[in-house]
# Entry
Amino acid sequence: MFTHSRRVLLLCAISLVPAFAAAQSGDTSPIRIGVSGPFTGGSSPMGESMRNGIRIAVEEINNIGGLNGRKIELVERDDQANNDLGAKIADELTQMKVVATVGIVNTGVGLASIDAYQKARIPLLVAVSTGTALTRKYAPPAAPENYIFRISPTLDLEAKVVVAELKRKGLQKAAILADTTAYGEAGLKAFQEQARGAGLDVTAEERFKIGDQDMSVQVRDAKASGAQALVVWGIGPELAAVARNKDALGWKVPMLGSWTFSMRNFIDGSGKAGEGALMPQTFIQDLGSSAKNSFLLAYKRTFKTDRIPSPMSAAQGYDGMHLLYLALRQANSTDGTKIKEALENLKSRYQGVITSYHKPFSKEDHDAITQNMLIMGMVTNGRVDYAYADDQKRGALLRMKAQ
# Structure
């Protein structure tokens, strides 16, 4: 699907936008871009993968001269999936006057961070978090300008895809388990709303905390409710515990949930109990195309492994950084307002890892991913594969943003 032509496409896109501001032609200082994410702890597979994707994009950009000779320099901070620390990092990065930030994995951290970027008029491109509220809080008419953008799907879209999959399988009753974080709470509400609209019966609603490793009581109650499927919203380690508990009870119903079922620590932690788990994805690391996928080749070359802890996070970080780069070129400036306006009206089409981006944002819509870009993944033989062969055949060009 993606070949060595990516670099050619990038160069073509560059030729369509103006050179960086002539007034800055004598300035060779680096352009500082913030990166905020969890690089330690249970969410680190997502944070590390995202950061690696961003680093690959920056290496490519710097190798072709950066922005009029100015190289991009990443200012990386580990938020440890801690809301308070995330807020402090947002304050630090904005006070350092980074040109923009790419990052944010956890919804709670995002909610604690976005006010600082909005106040400072510094664009934030959310690369992983799916919390719907992040891009909506300052969307018109709530505020005259919105500096928060996103390159990941929203919880609402995830919930729609999960409910559609339940309907596709002819299942009418589902139980849901969700963690007690802001992410889990938002996922629970999104699923409830979508299930209600589709006429599905939510037979049980159970909760668990980050760090819990025995959800057997919640799983037993879900089974007793008569559910035909188990939906789970959380992150890797706790999802793995739910899968093991479900397997131990001999409950054979399908297990579906948030995109985080694709995390390496879920797949490794759940073992055979995680086989068959279904989740929405923007990008699946197709082993059959790895040899010709320039992004995957670059990842393996740079990090000496083709085992990406969270492929979707890596792809979204990579695409987000390249979209920011094109906005910087088009804005002809490092001014936050001008970069925001360029993002809202990108003139260059960009062939990314996830899809072909054509005007991914507008003043009214700061979410680049639409439902037609999501595909269903399934844990198979210790990795995430396409749940349906038809999805594997669909090219990125057929998944362009619904206008």
Summary: Residues 1-9, 11-19 have pLDDT under 50 and may be disordered. The radius of gyration is 21 Å.
